Amino acid sequence: MPPIRICNECEQLLTISANALRRHAADMHNAISLVQTDITEEQVDKYKIRLIASFNDGQSAWNAYCSHLRTHGILP
Fold first, then answer.
1. Per-residue pLDDT tens for 25-54?
2. Is 11 helix (H, G, I), strand (E, B) or coil?
3. Cα-Cα end-to-end distance for the chain
4. How is the chain split into domains, by residue range?
5. How far is the C-alpha of 42 from the C-alpha of 17, rounded, in Å?
C-alpha cells in the first residue's frame, strides 16, 4: 500500500475549513437563541444574510479542502 501523501497545504486547508464551519456553527447557535426572543423582522433578515454567508464560506472552504485531498488520492 502506498503511503498517504500529506503536505502543509493539507493542514492549512483543514484549519481554514474547520474555522469557517465553527464560525457558521456559532452564527447558527446565536440565531437559534435569538429566535427564542422577541426580535424584529429586520433582525431576522439580517441574520439570514449572515447565516447564508457563513454557510457559503464554510462550504467553499470544505470543498477546497476536499478537492486538495483528491489531488493526493486520499478522496475519490
1. 999 999 999 888 888 889 889 999 999 999
2. helix
3. 16
4. 8-71
5. 30
